[in-house]
Amino acid sequence: MGKNLIEIAQQLKDNDKKVQLIYAFNGSGKTRLSREFRLLAAPKSDLETEENGLASKKIIYYNAFTEDLFYWDNDLVNDVELKLKVHPNSFTEWVLNEQGQDQNVISHFQNYTNRALTPRFSPDFTEVTFSFEQGNESSSHNIKISKGEESSFVWSIFYSLLDQVIDILNVPDLTERETDKLNQLEYVFIDDPVTSLDDNNLIQLAVDLAQLIKRSDSESGLKFIITTHNPTFYNVLHNEFNKKTCYMLDRQEDGTFELQEKPGDSNKSFSYHLHLKKTIEDAIVSNQVQRYHFMLLRNLYEKTASFLGFPKWSELLPDNKEAYYNRIIQFTSHSTLVNEIVAEPSPQEKQTVKLLLEHLTSNYSFWKEV
Known about the structure:
The chain is of the alpha/beta class. Helix content is about 45%, strand content about 15%. It has 13 helices and ten strands.
């Protein structure tokens, strides 16, 4: 029996590590977890009001709700004045109006997209227009940007906010901080900021975020929780942080959840090829090898060959036996006749599965737990 998301959120809250990194497949409940954690860290009675604004915050978060603060006015009548509008909120009010970080936001955004793609804020920072500034007659104004570019823009605002927050909280003496509005802040929850980003921007974002978090003084007490569905993003962050706790969030069939602690990056913990490897290993140990395990074994060989750059997966097979093992795997994984073979593999065929798996893992640098 698993846990509900409130219990998972409490488990995260009880952890005293500076960074907690969570991998989860899409649809596993990452965004709902971020919401439950927010409510646990700052109950409704403690949330923002018009009077206390940012000063009431115990947590700042980036998730789908953050992106929903920005919405398009597409000027459907004239199709001319396309604007990205901003819902009033304490975060953009503070980072843009009070801290004057609009130029930094633009700089970060252009680093992730294109130097010619230029956002322009309205004087009250409630609207943003975008243009391509080519420096010639080909410049384009009032354009609508892509979803990936929009995500990069929202992230750039959050990143600028977090940058300012860390600078302020790194001052140990409360009386010397430039503002007391952040003194209550304890948590930063970042939920999957890489949706719609290509790999280059995704890696750059991960590196930038890691450097920012590492700059945060542990004495400030600020803790970071990051969730993602992207193995590359997860791996970059995993390798950047020395002291962290890493998990995989899994949704069970009964609707409950499990938060499993993972000791390594995705290549050691939860990538699909590891699932294939473990499935075959379990079948070998329990003497339950079936004919479909040959197909899984071939799939594992194919993925390994593709990663290592071999033109054919069969080149990874043992020397002097390639034709024999290739014939067995082809026969058992591609056979179409319903009456030519029995369901149960012979002892020799089961031994072949074991031999081929051991050959692959022993000769092609699969990580082995000591």
